[in-house]
Amino acid sequence: MDYPQRKLHRLQGYDYGQNGAYFVTICTRDKKPILCHVGNAVPGVPPAVTPTAVGEIVLAAWENMNRIDPDVRTDAFCLMPNHIHGIIRIDRPREPSETERRGRRSLPEIVRGLKSVTTRAYNRLVPESEKNRLWQSSYYDVVIRSEAHYLAVWDYIAGNAARWTEDEYYTP
Q1: What is the pLDDT of residues 32-41, one digit of tens each?
Q2: Distance (Å, rounded) from C-alpha 166 to C-alpha 71?
Q3: Was domain 20-162 assigned CATH 3.30.70.1290?
Q4: Beta pairing partners, 25
């Protein structure tokens, strides 16, 4: 049987464990709007974003990543009804030796950890039929390569709630 080719989201040959800033987007399974509610936008006023219980779990886990690994920093973050956007920075003070390189966490491992801890907490809130159904199987990332790009991503994340109804993941 021939299976469809899956699109690879990671840059081939790129070391996602090296120092750098990464823009990540993680969607809920089936794009279910379970993370927050976005209030109606009023011109000139950012809409209120009210996290659900699941959204509170995700927010806490995002903030906790700064305490788990001293070489990982979270930056701009946006909780949306069915996805999150954020910047994850890997900033090691020096280039690791070959032995140390095997023990360092890469972006895929960091995201896997975030998804794992939030899913375990989510599972305590939902019926058996919904367990392990918080996130879609993959995520999207963009390697941020310059300060101008970093600032553009930051602005995009900061204004995301105001553009919710035009968002590609929007569900009424």
Answers
A1: 999 999 987 6
A2: 35
A3: yes
A4: 85, 140
